């Protein structure tokens, strides 16, 4: 499965390869998304997507 962009300058993303590459963080991804405020609010106390992703990779 591939995700393509409608903009010609952008590339295609191989979803299967992405899932295989990041399989270790997959179980915690939904909870991490919710705890990092789901992209609808400003980041609280410096805990944004980057910080959450770094913590998931350490586990």
- Gap between N and C termini: 28 Å
Pattern of helices and strands: EEHHH
Q: Give Rg in angstroms.
A: 14 Å
Compute the number of helices.
Answer: 3
Low-confidence stretches: none
Mean pLDDT metric = 74
Largest sheet: 2 strands, antiparallel
Beta-strand proportion: 5-15%
Strand pairing plus helix content: what structural class? mainly alpha
In short:
By secondary structure, the protein is mainly alpha-helical. The chain is built from 3 helices and 2 strands; from the N terminus they run E-E-H-H-H.
Compile the SSE list and pairings.
Blueprint: E1 2-3, E2 13-14, H1 15-21, H2 29-35, H3 49-58
Antiparallel strand pairs: 1-2
Please provide a written account of the structure.
The protein is 41% helix and 7% strand. By secondary structure, the protein is mainly alpha-helical. It has a two-stranded antiparallel sheet with strand order 1-2. The longest helix is centred in the last third of the chain and has 10 residues, at 49-58. The chain starts with a strand and ends with a helix.
List keywords for this structure.
59 residues; mainly alpha; two-stranded antiparallel sheet; 3 helices; 2 strands
């Amino acid at each position: 499965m591939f995700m393509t962009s409608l903009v010609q300058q952008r590339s295609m993303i191989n979803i299967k390869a992405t899932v295989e590459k990041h399989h270790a963080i997959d179980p915690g991804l939904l909870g991490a998304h919710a705890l990092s405020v789901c992209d609808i609010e400003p980041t609280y106390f410096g805990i944004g997507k980057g910080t959450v992703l770094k913590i998931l990779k350490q586990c």
